[in-house]
From TrEMBL, chain A:
Originating species: Pelagimonas varians
Record gene name: pcaG
GO MF annotation terms: ferric iron binding; protocatechuate 3,4-dioxygenase activity
Name of the protein in its database record: Protocatechuate 3,4-dioxygenase alpha chain
Family: Belongs to the intradiol ring-cleavage dioxygenase family.
Database matches in PROSITE patterns: INTRADIOL_DIOXYGENAS
Top-level taxonomic group: Bacteria
Alphabetized Pfam families for the sequence: Dioxygenase_C (PF00775)
Keyword vocabulary terms for this entry: Dioxygenase, Oxidoreductase
NCBIfam families for this protein: protocat_alph
Automatic annotation (TrEMBL), chain B:
Protein name per its UniProtKB record: Protocatechuate 3,4-dioxygenase beta chain
EC number, as in UniProt: 1.13.11.3
Taxonomic lineage from the root: Bacteria, Pseudomonadati, Pseudomonadota, Alphaproteobacteria, Rhodobacterales
GO biological process terms, semicolon-separated: 3,4-dihydroxybenzoate catabolic process
InterPro entries in the record: Intradiol_dOase_C (IPR000627), Intradiol_dOase_core (IPR015889), Intradiol_RC_Dioxygenase (IPR050770), PCDO_beta_N (IPR024756), Protocat_dOase_b (IPR012785)
Gene Ontology terms, MF aspect: ferric iron binding; protocatechuate 3,4-dioxygenase activity
SUPFAM superfamilies attached to this UniProt entry: Aromatic compound dioxygenase
Domain Intradiol ring-cleavage dioxygenases: 86-114
Protein keywords: Dioxygenase, Oxidoreductase
Family: Belongs to the intradiol ring-cleavage dioxygenase family.
Amino acid sequence: MVQKLDYLHESPSQTAGPYVHIGCTPNFTGIGIYGGDLGTSMKTGPVKGLEIIIRGTVFDGTGTPLRDAMVEIWQPDAAGLFPSANETRGAADPNFVGWGRSPGDMNTGEFIFDTVKPGAVPFPDGRMQAPHITAWIVARGINTGLHTRIYFEDEPEANAADPILSRIEHQNRIPTLLASKQPDGSYRFDVHLQGPNETIFFDM
Amino acid sequence: MSILNGPPKSGGFIPRDRVWQPDALTPPYKTSVKRSPQAALLSFPTTLSEETSPVFGHSILGDLDNDLILNYAKSGESAIGPRIIVHGRVLDENGRGVPGALLEFWQANAGGRYRHKKESYQAALDPNFGGCGRTITAEDGSYEFRTIQPGPYPWPNGMNDWRPAHIHFSIFGHGFAQRLITQMYFEGDPHIKLCPIVGILKTQEAIDALTAPLDMNRTVPMDSRAFKFDIVLRGQRQTYFENRKEGL
């Protein structure tokens, strides 16, 4: 026998179910409470940097849009600083929340985020990562929340030098991580849970 | 177990145990079949993007946010059903309390009915029950809220599947890597062992980890029973010996 390793197990994940919006965006479902839903606005005043809109839809393996998903994003400000209690490199833009949550459109499921283009942040070894946003997707039928990253199609040099993107074996799947610039200046980032265009999901 | 508190130390997050956690594709839970990624997940150590997290201050909370019996009820009225207190601690895998963690919870009413336009179960709505609440953990990671015990309900999966009574939890820790949604079940519910969603859990130990025992010590006599539900988030590595650049 050996001594016991006294660590705890992470609580097992369970699906967010069909009514995640009741718990996380109750006002969206018609339950008026809390004075509004968290994550609706990522800005509390004028922000520094390039303001951008990101839209997208989550599709299942048949190509059907999910209308009961919830998407959250988390990102640094335009200077690459996180509005987080454990950000030690400097103070982030005080008017930028860094976190957004979208229940998707009631009819189409399309999510939308009104944010800023993130600055670059370093990898643990000091190399710079390409500008990116962390995204987290939960819904009925998703047993553990899916974690992916939104990189930007119009950052080819930074993407080519990125410590993670450059290490991906199936380089032909990288476009699934790139937000594409639309004619109106916004970005589009669709998520495919399954199928030939399946989004790269992370275990980080 | 030592009980230490405070912000996490530097060091990346301990990898999520994908053997312990449920698989993505679990055919008895039918909706997972077309909503489960088929390619392998891309594994990397966490970076600042996953080691930081939004901050939610206690100032966002209203007085009744953690009281589902009253937070949607008309003045002088209250939700119908067995009154219960749910309490516990949010810990990390190292056993440390996680302070300042935002918990959001949602549930069906005592009859098993959700307040949602897509809900089709015939059980009656309770006009005084909204079904959602939230709180933020204290310095030692503890939390509590008051609600009514939700009822089991049927759902479209197999021809006759019923969910055990449960409360959904959404939890933020100190790093976005800790983000978690799970469900709490109630001790003794005979539906637990029949449910295809509980059935995605791979071991009895995992089911037990989501099953809250009746806690008579926290029960308020002649008022509310209590159930205890601890939640464990991913921990961070604790070491002086961090990765060094090559050659050092």
